[in-house]
Amino acid sequence: MTAGSLLVVPAIEKNRGGGHLVRGAALVRSLRRAGREAFLFLPEDHNRELLGIAGLNDVSWIRWEDPRKTPGPEEGWDFIILDKFRTSPEEAASWSALAPLVGIDEGGSYRRSFDFLIDILPNLYTRRVDLPNITAPSMIPLPVNRRPSFHKKGSPLRVLISFGAEDTAGLSFPAAMALVKSSREDDLEITLIATTQFPAKAFRAFSNVIFIPKGIPELREHLAEYDLLITHFGLCAFEAIHARLPVLLVSPGGYHEKLARHAGFFSAGTGPAAAGRIGQFLSDTNFLNSLAGRCENIASRYSLDTVPGQELGDLLAGFTRSRDYAGSAVTSCPACGAPGSRETQARFPGRTYRRCGRCGMIHMFRSSPPAIEYETDYFFGFYKKQYGKTYLEDFPNLIMAGKKRLSLIKHILGNRAGQGGAGRLLDIGCAYGPFLSAARGEGFSPQGIDPAADAVHYVREELGIPAQVGFFPDPSLQESEDDGSFGVITLWYVIEHFADLPPVLGEINRLLKKGGVLAFSTPSFSGISGKKSPETFLENSPQDHWTVWSPGICRKLLARYGFKLKKIQVTGHHPERFPLGNRFRKGGFIWNLLLYLSRLFGLGDTFECYAIKVRLP
Predict the structure, then answer these.
(1) Residue 449 in contact with residue 472, Cβ under 8 Å?
(2) At what angle do helices 395-413 and 434-441 cross, to 10 degrees?
(3) What total of structural domains would you count in the chain?
(4) CA end-to-end span of the chain
(5) Is the CA virtual torsion 533, 537, 539, 540 positive or negative?
(6) CATH (domain of 65)
(7) Global pTM?
(8) What does the DSSP 8-state code read for residue 137?
(9) Same domain (yes/no): 123, 170
(10) Which positions of the chain have pLDDT values less than 70?
């Protein structure tokens, strides 16, 4: 699969600071070093004063034209990465029409609707739907140069003051004045970075103050030259922690103050008045030792005390959108095609689960296609890990299960079972053919299709049943089989593997005779495991299960594709999965009671669905 391009969209509005722009530029550079084609989008009305600070003069990978109004790369955008601080629903909707959205430290009301969320900085979110896919302060570009220890020995104390590219709260000047007034010049060396208008002449009388109005390129690599950083909550504070530089924060507002204290930092408080009080802290001889100890704890808490591992650019370079979707699957439900399916259920590294507001299907979004190949190891190693035996070792049990399913199918077909070609049966995802074998034994004329060449070879050579290698819907079937060629089409634990269901169900409808049977089995989100812990159920869902079904959604969903539901058979009853159920002896009174309740209320973890074709889609 050819990877498409990545577009990074940073916040660059005035009074938003330059941190988002600097981080966006660094991210694009990192992605390009990793071999991905990546661009930085800057609107025409961007804050030009910040470009020099970010080192973005005459850079070829800046995208000036708005991709929402002009064509993108020929292969399209794989992902659009928004580092916007707070993205409005209207702006997010316009971007999501182009590609899936990745939110970086997103704090807006659209947060829970992003396809993928990465929080680099710790935040205050606690609700499950607001939690990110990944939280990792250690993913920021961390400095290579580091101090030997957080603790300072000797004097003078070298202090760095930096409140970002704009310092919209005006914290730099009162912080610097507080320090120069509270200490002797030979005890303190102050380096002040202030890129906004600043009364530099106020410090001309102090030989121990160095004023740098344009900022320091690659500032993180110079942090180890200092003994204390005074800043606000943000990337620089975490870079300093990795460099073993103690950090004292002053917050520009109440939200930053909450973030600072939640992350474990010491904060002098909020606003210029708090900045003007920092001198009193340095006059306390025990303060710096206490601050060093606090910062050591932060380093340990966020894995910033070790050599940097994977950076954000390395992670995002591996993001590749699946091309299995038909049409615009960026915002559509892969089951019914409804637009705007954004009700997030749970997030995990690499996966986001949503529920469609129209059909109720829970479906998975992935940052890259699953690394699963349906070959020999899938039916032996993977199958044995899940069921305790290989597929072929389980063959007799699978044939018996197939016979039970076929009895239901024959009952639904009634007198049509052997008339007019109704006996032709196609098993999609036939594997090594146990159901095909059972179908032949019940008088059907079966054939199969499966992507695993070894399995198809076994069906052909060992069982003597027609089968072909391929992914359904397969072009060769479309060419060779007329409309209404089959009386029965089955998918046993296969339907959840399709990333886009409309073309699958549409082709099944075409191939089935009117009155023909569609039958499938799949895991159930309505079973005891899903009810007991929905998040655990989704976390344990296999990485190639694109849809998560429940019996209750089948009738309306199948009706959209021309099928009428005839029967739901709930299976997979496990009394031991009830709360405290594993404490009871299998076959005992309580165990049997739980089994009875599971069957009575349909709490099995799998189910079978049987429907007939009544019309064209």
Answers:
(1) yes
(2) 50
(3) 3
(4) 31
(5) positive
(6) 3.40.50
(7) 0.86
(8) G
(9) no
(10) 1-2, 14-18, 45-58, 165, 185, 195-207, 214, 322-331, 340-341, 372-387, 416-422
CA distance linking residue 335 with residue 312, whole number of Å:
32
Find out whether 410 and 378 touch, Cβ atoms under 8 Å.
no
| 189 DSSP β-pair partners | 158
Q: Quote the DSSP letter at residue 163.
A: -
Within a domain: 590: yes
Angle at 311 between CA 151 and CA 499, to 5 degrees: 145
Strands 38-41 and 116-119 come out as unpaired
Residue 130 domain flag: yes
Task: Report the pLDDT value the prediction gives residue 153, as an integer from 0 to 100.
Answer: 76
β-pairing, 157-162 with 134-135? unpaired
Helix and strand element counts for the chain (H, E):
21, 24
Q: How confident is the model at residue 196, as a pLDDT?
A: 58
Half-sphere exposure in the Cβ direction for 565 (13 Å, CA): 15
Neighbours of 205 (CB within 10 A): 9
Look up residue 21 and give its two tokens.
Answer: 């722009």
Domain of residue 167 covers 157-301
Q: Does 562 share its domain with 426?
A: yes
pLDDT digits (tens, 9 = 90+) for 344-376: 999 999 999 999 999 999 999 999 988 766 666
Question: Do residues 469 and 547 both lie within one domain?
Answer: yes
- CA contacts within 13 A on the Cβ side of 571: 16
- Give the span between the Cα atoms of 249 and 247, in whole angstroms: 6
> According to the model, what pLDDT value does residue 532 have?
95
The amino acid at residue 526 is S
Q: Does 359 fall in a domain?
A: no
Residue 480's CATH number: 3.40.50.150
* Residues 560, 473 share a domain: yes
**Phi, psi torsion values for 400, nearest 5 degrees:** -65, -45
